[in-house]
Write a structure and sequence with these properties.
Helix content is 84%, strand content 0%. It is mostly helical. It starts with a helix and ends in a 9-residue tail after the last helix.
Length: 459
């Protein structure tokens, strides 16, 4: 991939030069590929990570699986804060106002640091009782509490990694964040192997290994952002204030608050889903958790394309190019649906083989594979929801998409799962998931083609 050509095409957005359809597609692909590779690498490394824990037995997998959705909730809150600032940076860069972009960056560092410390403290405080709130039994509660407390303690590292990554991506630099995220995965596996097996630390070792990997990644991510980025670096430039200012913070809240509320309620929905699964037994909890890990191999490419869509739509939106913004949005959605359809086919065919990588327990493999084959049919529309959401975020339109996500999750998935789980067991939960994702994707495509998300563009 010619990255110099990609940088030139990104400059075309800011400078108002015309682009052919072929150039737009090449730009989407060139920005997507590093992020897709990082997402897939992360999934593969997580496979190895989960396999290490899985080979400790079903109890260890269930302990992590029980608190995993709450961990996602914490991560989602951090991501919302990051995007509240980084979308503003993308708009400023698209408008060729690099000084404003750096002003937003400085303030984001202070705000996100305070935010992450608050979230971490809350996570540590609730870690002791969380497994019991989620319906976990005594046999897995201790490991689950320790795992969640350590991950919560490392929240600031996750926050800074995410902030640095989102800022670099919104500036058009997908290569460095992707490379560092891959490095983080490799470090995670190395540390986990040493701590889980060589030092015999079990689930605790898995959490510490992940935290150490994230610490190193956060340091490197901030170095490339603050010292090496052509557009956003602060090193070597005149000293400016880091004090948060009302205009930037208010805009961050307008963009990030709906996303944060969505993550809270979506994370809450995932927790409720875990509560629905918990009474089905240790095998069902482990199969559910590991099957979700396998499914991520399908949807991670969608998130890579979504990252590219957020960058391109954000910069085009900031430049006031309505037709260009719409073109990037449509092409990104189409590409995402094609890629995830192909991945869904592979998941359907190789479901059992993929599950067997994560666990040697036959019952878990069989149940997880059955659920994955149900989910495979929903992947095209899941792609539509993922990429369209990235498009809307790039345009700063986060409220209505958040409402759409929440309505779909709570009104369709959870209610249907609660009805089907007592009848069909874990497969009923996954049937509900597949139905809901198909409906959600349809809603997002309708909004994409309606054009309502473009109303605020200035052209």
């Amino acid at each position: 991939m010619n990255f110099g050509k990609s940088d030139s095409l990104l400059a075309s957005i800011r400078e108002g030069r015309e682009m052919t359809q072929g150039e737009k597609l090449r730009l989407i692909i060139s920005l997507s590929i590093p992020s897709i590779l990082a997402q897939i690498s992360a999934t593969i490394m997580f496979f190895i990570d989960a396999s290490m824990v899985g080979h400790l037995g079903a109890k260890a997998s269930a302990a992590i699986g029980l608190v995993e959705t709450t961990g996602w909730l914490m991560g989602g809150l951090g991501s919302a804060a990051n995007m509240g600032f980084s979308v503003q940076v993308a708009h400023a860069i698209g408008a060729n106002d690099f000084k404003r972009a750096r002003r937003i960056l400085r303030q984001s560092l202070v705000c996100c640091l305070i935010y992450s410390l608050t979230i971490s403290i809350i996570g540590i405080l609730i870690s002791g009782q969380l497994p019991y709130w989620l319906g976990g039994t005594e046999e897995i509660a201790y490991d689950a509490s320790i795992y969640f407390a350590i991950i919560g303690f490392c929240g600031i590292f996750f926050q800074m990694t995410g902030l640095g990554s989102s800022m670099l991506k919104c500036s058009g630099n997908m290569r460095i964040p992707s490379a560092l995220n891959i490095l983080s995965c490799v470090l995670d596996v190395v540390f986990n192997y040493c701590l889980i097996y060589l030092l015999n630390m079990g689930v605790m070792g898995a959490a510490i290994g992940t935290g150490l990997a994230e610490l190193i990644t956060a340091g490197l991510m901030l170095y490339f952002l603050l010292c090496r980025s052509d557009i956003l670096r602060l090193k070597g430039r005149p000293h400016r204030s880091f004090r948060p200012q009302a205009d930037v913070v208010n805009n961050a809240v307008k963009i990030g608050a709906p996303m944060a509320l969505q993550h809270v309620l979506m994370g809450g929905a995932q927790i409720v889903s875990t509560i629905i699964v918990a009474p089905l037994g240790t095998i069902a909890i482990a199969a559910h958790s590991l099957a979700i890990t396998v499914e991520s191999l399908c949807y991670m490419p969608g998130y890579g394309i979504s990252d590219a869509a957020t960058t391109l739509v954000g910069q085009s939106f900031g430049a006031g190019k309505r037709l260009l913004t719409k073109s990037f949005a449509y092409m990104s959605a189409g590409l995402g649906m094609c890629v995830m359809t192909f991945m869904g086919v592979l998941m359907f065919i190789f479901a059992s083989e993929l599950m067997s990588i994560l666990t040697p327990v036959g019952d878990i493999i069989d149940l997880g594979a059955y659920c994955l084959r149900i989910e495979a049919f929903a992947e095209p529309m899941f792609a539509a929801s993922i990429v369209c959401y990235g498009v809307f975020v790039g345009a700063g339109d986060t409220m209505k998409p958040a409402i759409m996500n929440l309505t779909s999750m709570w009104a369709v998935r959870l209610s249907l799962a609660a009805i089907l789980a007592p009848i069909y067991g874990l497969s009923g939960v996954w049937i509900a998931m597949a139905v809901e994702l198909t409906i959600r994707g349809s809603f997002f495509l309708i909004r994409l083609f309606s054009g309502n998300w473009l109303k605020k563009i200035k052209e």
